[in-house]
């Protein structure tokens, strides 16, 4: 009897263990990525890291938590492409805002759920400085990007047997261009922005949800395990140094430091600042795999050629031009790979963005150099690039009066005998003078021939 009870206990324990294991295995692995900041280099890096970790954890669902007013179109396009190519289902939860670049990212997801009171749309490309709409060239590219993203969701057959787009591409275009009209939704005077109810009505959202749990409940996932991506301090630091504004400042310091070092003796602060700025510019790109190693080697080669031109090759010629060209090419190519991550997939927008950042950095460098080397700049900078010493009379220095130069060629009268020095009178002014040849008697006519070493020299007429 006792053996029988022990056997039953063991069997019960095994059953409990198996049931617990089956319950745990039934939990759906959900990986959540929060995009709550401005879309840029940092959010793109977070997306890359999150997708890699979601694959490693074998998550069955990727949930993108969106609350953003937009940001860089180039980085938003990179995020959009990564989400479209992700092999597992991707769900967007719009928690209040998915504006501009955020709407593009939401449209790239397989399903969209919006909180009540949330909005999505307004994807017009604007200038980052004053917020004005960019020319139609940029709007055309964004319209095509939104349209192709909507078309990627495919078509379905409705109850009447008609084939319809799951996400209407015309509606996607209306979010970009106010000239696009969607009958029954918006006229040709406004840019489209959806509310949660409107997005659901026009099939741009699968439903409304008030929380992540509510989203998963509507997806019929009763048991789930949510893992959330948490960026590290290194991710924040790399994102900071890959920000376009910071990159322009680093380019300014690098270019300005090289110029100041070439115009000051020895090796000092300008070269140290230039080296540190170059390291902070290239290191994050290299560590993250954005910039290839040959680009960094090209930059180092350019610096070596510039040093060779300054200290070895006389004058300024092919070596210096080649060095400057290598440095500029490395900086620009690093920016291009920053946006495209592969030269084989380079596009004109990436080149344009890179050139804008590079020219902004060079312009800032020129402005900084002009200020630092002008009379308005600090003396501790100008002391290394120009002569700052003055010879003061109270320190024993004597100035030479150059006014007698004006007497050269004039005629006068010897007041005293000149043997050879004496005095002459010109225009009722008495001057010390020296005879250039022989002695000159008082009363003789003389002409001033030259003024040298603070002395007037005359010759008898």
Low-confidence stretches: 13-25, 340-345
**Structure summary, number of beta strands:** 15
What is the helical fraction, as a range of percent?
40-55%
CATH class membership of the largest domain: Alpha Beta
Indicate the CATH architecture of the largest domain.
Alpha-Beta Complex
What assembly state would you assign to the polypeptide chains in this entry?
A: single chain
Task: Please state the CA-atom Rg, rounded to the nearest Å.
Answer: 39 Å
What would the principal axes of the Cα set say about the shape?
A: elongated
What's the N-to-C terminus distance?
Answer: 154 Å
Number of domains: 3
Order of helices and strands, N to C? HEHEHEHEEHEEHEHEHEHHHHHHHEEEEE
The CATH topology annotation of the largest domain reads as 2-enoyl-CoA Hydratase, Chain A, domain 1
Largest sheet: 8 strands, mixed
Number of helices: 15
Overall mean pLDDT: 82
SS class: alpha/beta
Roughly what fraction of the amino acids lie in strands? Answer: 15-25%
State the CATH superfamily name of the largest domain.
2-enoyl-CoA Hydratase, Chain A, domain 1
